[in-house]
Specification:
Layout (H helix, E strand, L loop, with lengths): L2 E5 L4 H12 L3 E3 L15 E4 L11 H18 L4 E7 L25 H15 L5 E6 L1 E3 L10 H11 L1 E6 L4 E6 H14 L4 E4 L4 E3 H12 L2 E9 L9 H7 L23
Parallel strand pairs: 1-2, 1-3, 3-4, 4-5, 5-9, 6-8, 7-11
Antiparallel strand pairs: 8-10
Helix pairs in contact: 1-5, 2-3, 4-6
């Protein structure tokens, strides 16, 4: 049976990958941060989940180290059967297409692009390393039970507010993104790592979910009230192309809201 190494196992995705792989009977190692033995011992199939998200602007050097520095060391020195680098569909910001081969736009002078630039540098290292079995998974917006509002995740924040009784949406209800269920991610990443035939995969649902739909489901699930901020801006993101995922793995996305059905109802409602 395959051996896996999960780097970044303390994060939302990494911790759940670790639990899923162990539950499925795989031998899995989750090294502590700074463990230099990752460069000397056999790692099997590496799932590279190290990264910063909402706080990347305030921690630029940590972002570069997480997305590029450690990766470069692994690609140069580590012993692995395969390595799957987790990138993001955020790299399609400003692009005209969202298939894996689409030309991409970056603005180095814009601090918001630091995340995209470092992820793309990591992707480029993966593709130029000359190592066999190195792949990239561009993840869309992952949602599911147990998300941490402190991470800056919009849906986690809305969920926290809904449990408190009231949601104030700060972006236009028509705003929409591609959201993918955490269980789909846990199904797909090990398969891509071991079986993937391409070098890059979009790991997304292929469906757009609007903020209005989130409000509707949160209200139905928790009984919360909701309102929209008066100056809420429309946020638009292009639909993510998942043709490669569908054709190679027969992927069909789970319903994005199924984990919300067991949420507790709030006891007090606030009018808004």
């Amino acid at each position: 049976m395959s051996q896996f190494t999960v780097l970044g196992a303390s994060g939302y995705i990494g911790s759940r990958l670790l639990a899923r792989l162990r539950a499925d009977g795989y031998a899995v190692w989750a090294p502590e941060r700074g463990d230099r033995s990752i460069l000397t011992r056999p790692l099997g199939h590496v799932l590279y989940c190290v990264g910063l998200t909402g706080n990347f602007r305030s921690r630029p050097f940590d972002t570069v180290e997480a997305h590029v520095g450690l990766l470069a060391e692994l690609l140069q020195h580590a012993k692995f059967d395969s390595l799957l680098y987790l990138s993001s569909t955020r790299v399609y910001q400003g692009a005209e297409r969202t298939d894996e081969d689409a030309p991409l736009t970056v603005l180095p002078g814009n601090p918001s692009y630091l995340y995209n630039l470092t992820k793309l540098t990591g992707e480029s290292l993966c593709r130029c390393s000359g190592r066999a079995g190195v792949r990239v998974a561009r993840l869309s917006n992952v949602v599911g039970a147990g998300m941490d509002p402190a991470s800056g995740n919009l849906i986690a924040t809305l969920l926290q507010d809904s449990r408190a009784g009231h949601v104030l949406l700060q972006s236009a209800p028509e705003s929409a993104k591609d959201y993918i269920h955490i269980e789909d991610v846990l199904d797909l990443l090990p398969r891509i790592a071991v079986e993937g035939q391409a070098s890059i995969y979009n790991v997304a649902s292929g469906n757009q979910t609007s903020h209005a739909q989130w409000l509707q489901w949160l209200s139905a699930s928790t009984g919360c009230s909701h309102a929209v901020q008066s100056d809420a801006q429309l946020q638009t993101f292009a639909p993510i192309d998942v043709t490669r995922l569908q054709e190679e793995f027969g992927f069909v996305a789970r319903p994005i809201f199924d984990w919300l059905t067991s949420l507790p109802k709030v006891q007090i409602k606030y009018e808004g």
